[in-house]
Amino acid sequence: MSALRTGVIGTGIAVHHAAALQAIPGVDLVGVDDIEPDRAVAFGAWFAIPRHAPDPESFLASGPDAVTLPVAPRSAVATIRVIEPVLASAGPEGAS
């Protein structure tokens, strides 16, 4: 069985999410995105995440199997509005 490829959008409270995801056997944390690209790069280095994208569209286009959005409530709606069109254009297996 192949690993579940996961990603994180947002790097604030995501530190707890990333640590939890990395502790689960069969889950690979493969990508991170943040509104501040430098934070995504630093977060990726800290957790040895191979991919950090400059925007959610590029991040989702890289094909993670699952995404966690640990964002503040005030940011949740804006984040969903950004990723919704990408998710809507995905095929049955999640590929565009």
Write a brief caption for the model:
The protein is an alpha/beta fold and 96 residues long.
How would you characterize this protein structure?
With 96 residues, this protein is an alpha/beta fold. It has a single domain (4-88), classed as NAD(P)-binding Rossmann-like Domain (Rossmann fold). It is 43% helix and 20% strand. It is built from four helices and four strands. It has helices spanning 14-22, 37-46, 56-61, 73-88, and strands spanning 4-9, 27-33, 51-53, 66-68. Strands 3-2-1-4 form a four-stranded parallel sheet. The longest helix is centred in the last third of the chain and has 16 residues, at 73-88. The protein is globular. The protein starts with a strand and ends in an 8-residue tail after the last helix. The mean pLDDT is 83.
What oligomeric assembly is this protein in? single chain
Number of domains: 1
The CATH superfamily title: NAD(P)-binding Rossmann-like Domain
Instruction: Give me the number of helical elements.
Output: 4
Structural class: alpha/beta
